[in-house]
Amino acid sequence: MEGTGRVGDIVEVPLGAAPPFRPRFPWLGGDLQTVRNMIVRPRPAFADAPAERLAFAMDDGTGDVLLADLHRPKPSAGPLAQRPLAVLIHGLTGCGESFYVLSTARALLDRGLPVLRLNLRGAGPNAGACREQYHAGRTADVAKVIGALDPALTRNGVVAVGYSLGGNVLLKLVGEAGTAAPFRRVAAVSPPLDLAAAARCMLRPRNRLYHRYLLARMKEEARATREGLPKHFAEKVESARTIVGYDDAIVAPRYGFASAADYYERCSATRVLGGIRVQSLVIHSRDDPWIPAAAHEAAAARGNPHVRIVLTDRGGHVGFHGAGRRMPWHDARIADFFSEP
To answer: What pTM value is reported for the model?
Structure first.
C-alpha cells in the first residue's frame, strides 16, 4: 500500500500535502486504470481559453512542420507575473488531443498557466505535414520548438510534462542538456525509462490486446506520413508482427540505429537521469501493465537531488483516476509541483 515508507514511495518523497493515491470505483486494478483514458467522456472543455494553432518548421531538410495548440488562461485565473508556459508532450500513438493531455491542460490553465499542447513529428494533425516520425529519443524536435517560441510566451520560463514515451523524450532531453536544459521544471508520467524492458513487457501474453492495439496504431501513423513511406519501408511496416520487429525493421534503420536493441539502449532515459539538473518529478505505478517499475526503483535508489520519483502501488499506465475528484491524481500533483517556489 502507499505510505509504507519504502524508497520511492510518496512518504519518502513528499509532494506538498499530496494525499496518497486511491483508485476510483469501478476503475480498480492497473488494466482498468489504463483503459479508462480510451473511453472517458466527457473530455475537458476550453471555451474560456480557445486554442491558437502554432506551427514550427523543422530546419533539418525534411520540410516537416510540427503543429501545437496554445491556450492562454482567462484573466480571472490570477496574476500571471510569475506563471511559466507549460508544454505538454504526448505518448506513443497519442497526440495533443489525447485525453490525458487535455486533462493536464485544463488543470494547469485553472492554475493560471498558459499551456502548449505539442504534437510530435508525424502525430495527430502533424501526419500530413511531416515526412518523418517521432521516436523515443528524438529530443531535438522538442528543443527546436522551445527555442522557436515567442519570447513573450517564455518570459516567465517554461515547464513541461511528458507522458509515457513523451516522458522518456523529455527526461532524456533534460538529462543530456544538464544545466543548459531550457526548462524551469519538468514532470514525467509513466515514462519507460528502460525501453528494452518496456518492450519485453509488452510482448508478454497477458498484454497481447494492448500490443495488437498499439502496433496497429503505429502502422496507421506510418502510412499517414506526407508523401507516404518509401516502398521498402512500406513493405516492412505491413509485415511487422511485433513492436520490437517494427522498431528493428523501420525505426532503427530509418533513424540511424543499428537495431532495435541499439535504439532502446541509446534512447532510454535511464542512461542520463544522473545528468538532470532541473527540478524533475517522475510519477509511476507499480501496477502499470505496460512498463515495469524496476528502472524507476533503481533510479530512486541511486538518487539525484534534482529528481523526485513518486512510485505508487496502483494507478495503471497514465491512469491515476482517483477517488474523490474527476481530475486524475497526477494532474493535481503536477500542478502542485509547478507551483512550488
So the answer is: 0.93
